[in-house]
Amino acid sequence: MLIVMQAQAGEEQVRAVCQKIELMGYRPHTVAGAGQTAVGIAGNTGEVNASAFEGMPGVAEVVRVTKPYKLVSRDFHPDNTVIRFPCSGAVIGGSELTVIAGPCSVESREQLFAVAERMAAQGVRFLRGGAFKPRTSPYAFQGLGESGLQLLVEVRERFGLLIVTEAMDESSLELVERYADVIQVGSRNMQNYSLLKQVGRATKPVLLKRGMSATLEEYLLAAEYILNEGNQQVILCERGVRTFADHMRNTLDLSFVPAAQQLCHLPVIVDPSHGTGRSDKVLPLSRAAVAVGADGLIVEVHPVPERALSDGAQSLTCDQFDEVMAQIRPIAALVGRSVPAPLSTAAATLAASR
Amino acid sequence: MLIVMQAQAGEEQVRAVCQKIELMGYRPHTVAGAGQTAVGIAGNTGEVNASAFEGMPGVAEVVRVTKPYKLVSRDFHPDNTVIRFPCSGAVIGGSELTVIAGPCSVESREQLFAVAERMAAQGVRFLRGGAFKPRTSPYAFQGLGESGLQLLVEVRERFGLLIVTEAMDESSLELVERYADVIQVGSRNMQNYSLLKQVGRATKPVLLKRGMSATLEEYLLAAEYILNEGNQQVILCERGVRTFADHMRNTLDLSFVPAAQQLCHLPVIVDPSHGTGRSDKVLPLSRAAVAVGADGLIVEVHPVPERALSDGAQSLTCDQFDEVMAQIRPIAALVGRSVPAPLSTAAATLAASR
Amino acid sequence: MLIVMQAQAGEEQVRAVCQKIELMGYRPHTVAGAGQTAVGIAGNTGEVNASAFEGMPGVAEVVRVTKPYKLVSRDFHPDNTVIRFPCSGAVIGGSELTVIAGPCSVESREQLFAVAERMAAQGVRFLRGGAFKPRTSPYAFQGLGESGLQLLVEVRERFGLLIVTEAMDESSLELVERYADVIQVGSRNMQNYSLLKQVGRATKPVLLKRGMSATLEEYLLAAEYILNEGNQQVILCERGVRTFADHMRNTLDLSFVPAAQQLCHLPVIVDPSHGTGRSDKVLPLSRAAVAVGADGLIVEVHPVPERALSDGAQSLTCDQFDEVMAQIRPIAALVGRSVPAPLSTAAATLAASR
Amino acid sequence: MLIVMQAQAGEEQVRAVCQKIELMGYRPHTVAGAGQTAVGIAGNTGEVNASAFEGMPGVAEVVRVTKPYKLVSRDFHPDNTVIRFPCSGAVIGGSELTVIAGPCSVESREQLFAVAERMAAQGVRFLRGGAFKPRTSPYAFQGLGESGLQLLVEVRERFGLLIVTEAMDESSLELVERYADVIQVGSRNMQNYSLLKQVGRATKPVLLKRGMSATLEEYLLAAEYILNEGNQQVILCERGVRTFADHMRNTLDLSFVPAAQQLCHLPVIVDPSHGTGRSDKVLPLSRAAVAVGADGLIVEVHPVPERALSDGAQSLTCDQFDEVMAQIRPIAALVGRSVPAPLSTAAATLAASR
């Protein structure tokens, strides 16, 4: 913590600040700058309360210099966190690019199987699909609930895909934890601290999406809530933030990826579907996300997007998804990432007929 | 819904759009503009799925013309909603300016009584104070929980103040609903739809704070969730939004007040404490909030802000709060609002000694 | 300047930073925080180049602690700047609330006289009206140019109103400086440094509008450009900033007023017309702007807004303007500001017939 | 234009809107939606004034359906604009990826030659370097002026690089147009309409950088100003926008690239140096910019960034620039773009010794 004094602050005001620091049990260090004095605090082992100084006479500004998060930081855990799924051999955060694909909402067995078959043929290992849907309007489709989860399990059994699906609250979390392989926490719940603590006690990895207007620090602190409860398996996901720009649904902040990777050891994936809101922009932004160095992608795919009960405008068709996979494979290779090979047609047909 | 065609769209593309509208059971109305054609949809009784048209050849844009909310709208309920608290005579949304004041967090009986006595002396009817605190960092003070609620009840009994306190999840809601008079839902939970549905079934009024980056429409839809479950007693609260501006903690959006009041019948109050994050700016912004026509204010007051366990930098001292009350009284009168008179010193002393 | 080291930075990295500071001729001061070290710089008389340190091994962050502006600062000039117009007795920045009103664009003598007569009747001292218009579209009305300025001069002669009008470039500035009493620099030119330097050498006061997304610091630095050329008569104007919020044309940032007044000695006025973009919202936000403590208002008024060649949607009618004046007078009085009295009907008629 | 009526609007209010449309010489088309009526306008050849309707009783909203720009639009000019530099064989907007590199400011012959030699060795065709610098602070280095331009010309003669440099106003434009190959207009001047008109009459191509908070539409309208004066050779440049996010200097909006390319025929390049503000983030964002499909890159390179007089923190060293080139070449190939080959060491040495 650094307390910056006003240019016209008198010596006695600087002294009062130093005395307060000493009263708190710390040591003040005075630094005289160009026309201004600053007082540093040493000897503290935790965070110092800035507001104790903000109102004092002569104080211009209080600058925090220690990061408020710890467990998510590379200072604490220098190596990348790699999340392993032993039964399937899949990993998130390793050298293989993670691709998570599937419909926004689970709507029917037909819909889910149609998508899953095409995913599996591409070698994709993770299927996304919402059974509990946080919707802006109370009148919009709210998801199939537990029967949606059961359909996801059928798909896992048939195609060997791991399931990523969202939990919205304590009761849906209990179900999601039971059925799914990865628990998703949505953007609107990024600062739902009760839910964060609950998933922090869960035994499954958590995909925590960035809030609509979350700073990097707030986002890392939200992840810190989860790690602090004991669950170390957290995946970050940039999905576009809210800005003045109106040419896309959100502004996809790809610089977030290397910025987060530098400070934090958790895997960072990108959601170009929510990040753009428009299916024809998912392809170029998927290429860019892989090129920037993301650990993976999560994209929405629907067999017939125009009939989707949610997010149709941003869902790829299965053919468009194949094109995304075809275009990102060589870019992934250039940035040192492998991508599972597509199954040969024969193998894919066989897999589908299991 | 209006489907705007591209300038170079051919007749057959316009025809395809019209046919799709007819297939959906609606009637297309073609409007030829300057160099561009648009097709309106008539005959629909609910919302039409925009994504059905967004991908069609020749379509430039799909424009929604019907508001997606209903119960919160003045179209549906033209008169102001007035929330009454029969036992105390207090109202929110009526001609009396509502003032809600108190500490960010309930910390101790001493703290709470010190503030409450001064509030009561000012004629204030509502005490705020958090027992369950959503904090950005997992290491920050998280509130006293139920024992904090019990302290609030003691204050209600002693000073006759109504209690406003936050619920964060199902379990805290159960307690808050039992102890408090108004259930607060915080900014970070504005789109926690599970919590919104739960408070929608509660029997107490709900103070729903605006999300950090919520548009007016998203905010009204969040309120719509509550009304749709049966609870008509919702209070909106502008508390600053997140922008690029860094001279305050948030950017207080006072134009929100008349904008919301025009579209929506619910009371709209303003939180200049979170809206600025700095105690010395609460006074001028409180004056402005009353002048713009807000139905009330919610402000943070602490007997010794520099010792506050949360939000000290934005908390008023009791003396500063008295000054806020003194300055807003005549402004309230100018915009047609009454403010309860301060108790005479004698009466205040008597009240405190009850 | 404070160089914050990474938690894992070694002693030799801290030493390298200290050596670099010494090489630059300054003195390093090491401050050991909780798990991290910071190095302060002392002995510098001007700004230190942050980038000299940002790339060094072990450096986490470089924090600037000295404000980069000087002439606009209260540290340099503690008293309010009051701009006086001797011939008319008007002031800006004094205890009288400054009201500047008039049409967005000068369109015709009839238009201008119709508005000016009503302004004068209200005791208003400043008429705004653009002769050179910066328009988002090249196809929109670009202003009458010099003949517009001549119409403004006719109005000054007839009604005694002082003229505020915009200069866009060197050639229009020459004309504006000759004809007008206050030179306006628009939001889009807030960082047009060539223009700022030119108006800094002008002999008339400058009304510098805040840029669409200017931080307080950038705005003060833009004003610093003008003062640095010798012109001390600068008026700041909050006119709404660009955010995600879409219920108004811009988000009026009223907290800017006390924040700027605290750091800077220049007068600060508010433009609720551009700040909202909607005429029916100008009245409540005008009240709020006066209540927050602004030194004045600038509002758009048009005799027939629906026929305005620019900004019709946000222009008040003359009757609406009368209502604004009626409502802000008593609020101004409450915050210690006088407002010139309206002329009696007789006097106004007489004035108009001069 | 579509006028949307309020739900409770009466028939006579709809009729009044229709009559007004007819009075303006257009034809009204009534569209009855779910509970609301909308009135379309047909028969207009130019833009209709929205404000004529916004204040009318019963009107909820006025929706514009025609884009306000024309010359920059693909509706008007479906093919890509390709800007050719006949003497050098370079193009912008063609199949070859354009790379523009060089220091933020021209500081000295040594600095410029050191960078240019390395650029030329990479096959780069365009050198950037500012001689006139728009700086946030009046106390920061403002550029060498004409002598800087002369140094740039020396470099062109020695290394065959084309010169891109910024003009800030009429007088610097005259010089820049004489010396440079491409005239840059900076972000802060994106809505300096006087300058836009002047460069619109220039005979050299214009690199127009996106404003800090410019929407796509505003940006295209700024380009429209230039085309409307006769200069068809305009290059757009995404350079990061201003948002709440604070982990980078700006938020690089890569979705802008495909969005602009879809609507507009002009080349679109990306500036990852300003877009991130941090040299270590330029590499990953350069890869992403090429992958998303940009027509080119503009990056800052300095022989010794820590001694740079401006923008040192975001400048690459020459070695880092080589790495950027090495990494983007194969990505460019994947998206169908060629990149000029680096000269062989021998050829480069020869070129430098010419």
3D architecture notes:
The structure is a homotetramer. In chain A, the strands form three sheets. The first copy, chain A, has an eight-stranded parallel barrel, surrounded by seven helices. The first copy, chain A, folds into two domains: about 1-65, 2-Layer Sandwich (Alpha-Beta Plaits); about 85-354, Aldolase class I (TIM Barrel), CATH 3.20.20. Chain A has helices at about 10-25, 50-55, 110-120, 145-160, 170-180, 195-200, 215-230, 255-265, 270-275, 280-290, 320-335, 345-354, and strands spanning about 1-5, 25-30, 35-40, 60-65, 85, 90, 100, 125-130, 160-165, 180-185, 205-210, 235-240, 270, 295-300. In chain A, α3 runs parallel beside α4 (about 145-160), α6 crosses α7 (about 215-230) and α10 runs parallel beside α11. Chain A is elongated and about 80 Å long. Chain A has twelve helices and 14 strands. Chain A starts with a strand and ends with a helix. The model of chain A has no long low-confidence stretch (mean pLDDT about 90). Chain A is about 35% helix and about 15% strand. The first copy, chain A, is of the alpha/beta class and about 350 residues long. Chains in contact: A-B, A-C, A-D, B-C, B-D, C-D. At the C-D interface, α2, α6 and α7 of C face α2, α6 and α7 of D.
Secondary structure layout plus pairing:
Four copies of one chain form a homotetramer.
Chain A: E1 2-5, H1 11-23, E2 27-32, E3 37-42, H2 51-54, E4 59-63, E5 83-85, E6 90-92, E7 98-102, H3 109-121, E8 126-128, H4 146-159, E9 162-166, H5 170-179, E10 182-185, H6 193-200, E11 206-209, H7 216-228, E12 234-238, H8 256-263, E13 268-270, H9 272-276, H10 279-292, E14 296-300, H11 318-334, H12 345-353
Parallel strand pairs in A: 7-8, 7-14, 8-9, 9-10, 10-11, 11-12, 12-13, 13-14
Antiparallel strand pairs in A: 1-3, 1-4, 2-3, 5-6
